[in-house]
UniProtKB/TrEMBL annotation:
Domain of life according to the entry: Bacteria
Organism of provenance: Rhizobium giardinii
NCBIfam families assigned: NHEJ_ligase_lig
Biological-process GO terms, alphabetical: DNA recombination; DNA repair
Listed EC numbers: 6.5.1.1
The keyword Membrane appears for this protein: no
Name of the protein described by the UniProt record: DNA ligase (ATP)
GO molecular function terms noted in the UniProt entry: ATP binding; DNA ligase (ATP) activity
Domain ATP-dependent DNA ligase family profile: 116-207
Family note: Belongs to the ATP-dependent DNA ligase family.
Alphabetized UniProt keyword annotations: Ligase
Length: 330
């Protein structure tokens, strides 16, 4: 491990610790890259967080820049025990199912649902990058070095902070195996890449089942369905415009439907955001963002076999799916 900076020797190199680093995001691809220059990991399905370890405190910052330390007390406590004065860890907070797979719905329930006030005691933080360490900014350092330092830092750690392990092997075979055991997919990262914010292509994600964020623009009323909601009406972006992409009527239980009904009724509008007509349709302002799992697209541009996974928090800064991405070459 790199020697820690001696506070008694202030002339040693020191980089000010940033308040926040905009995260590096994975670009969606349909096939895994080949070649030894790529490192592979499991794709986790949770909330992206950056752990800021400072001499007098620990902060957990969401992708949108919000402080969620109070939402994940076990992760914060584990971070304070890592034995380093300053560090920024990049990773994902997840809740695992009985098979050890990350479950976004379970994570949402542990937090009390969208807008909930509960703290998640069962969440685990899987660390996959180290951006700042003991006074040194590592964002201009190549990934292989950052990973080596990260592994040393959390070596032997258990409980609420764990290492997102690198998985060796051929990308196509790894994806096949991940899909076979019910994982969401894999992430490939270029070993020589520095840490660059945004979707640069240095990191790519390959999914077994497609899952994206869509805006809820209304719902279909149903007297027989749980909670009075037959299905949610969804839209994606096309530049500055909203485009209808179909509805979802599975994946939510009675409790979910009742919450959605109350939340959407507060957002009701007489003017539909997308050009839809129907006797039983209730239109809403584009405020709630739903995470939707689906199997592809129909010829008329609707989601195929869509299933509701949960609502995204505003603080998560989830990007609504842009239809330009659908048409872009993979």
């Amino acid at each position: 491990m790199r020697s820690r900076r001696d506070e008694a020797q202030p002339n040693l190199p020191f980089d000010p610790m940033p308040e926040r680093i905009e995260p590096c995001l994975a670009l969606l691809k349909t096939t895994a890259p080949a070649g030894g220059e790529w490192a592979f990991e499991v794709k986790w399905d949770g909330y992206r967080l950056a752990i800021h370890i400072e001499p007098a405190r620990v902060r957990l910052i969401t992708r949108g820049g919000h402080d969620w330390t109070h939402r994940f007390p076990a992760i914060a406590a584990a971070a304070s025990q890592l034995g380093v004065a300053t560090a920024i860890l990049d990773g994902e907070a997840v809740v695992l199912d009985e098979q050890g797979r990350s479950d976004f719905g379970a994570l949402q329930r542990s937090l009390g649902g969208r807008g909930g006030k509960r703290t998640s005691t069962e969440s685990i933080f899987y660390a996959f990058d180290l951006l700042y360490f003991d006074g040194h900014d590592l964002t201009r350092t190549e990934l292989s070095v950052r990973r080596h330092l990260l592994e040393d830092l959390i070596e032997g750690a258990s409980g609420a902070i764990q290492l997102s392990e690198e998985v060796g092997g051929d990308g196509a075979r790894l994806l096949e195996n991940a899909c076979a055991i019910g994982l969401e997919g894999i992430v490939a990262k270029h070993r020589a890449s520095i840490y660059r914010s945004g979707r640069t292509g240095d990191w790519v994600k390959i999914k077994c089942v497609q899952s994206e964020s869509f805006i809820v623009v209304g719902y279909e009323q149903s007297a027989s369905a749980r909670g009075g909601i037959g299905s949610l009406l969804l839209a994606g972006r096309n530049g500055d415009d909203w485009v209808y992409v179909g509805s979802v009527g599975t994946g939510f239980n009675t409790k979910d439907a009742e919450y959605l009904h109350k939340a959407l009724d507060k957002l009701e509008t007489k003017q539909p955001i997308v050009p839809l007509k129907g006797k039983n349709l209730v239109f809403t302002l584009p405020t709630l963002i739903a995470e939707i799992e689906f199997r592809g697209w129909t010829k008329d541009g609707n989601l195929r076999h869509a299933s509701y996974k949960g609502l995204r928090e505003v603080q998560d800064n989830a990007a609504v799916f842009d239809l330009v991405e659908r048409a872009a070459p993979r």
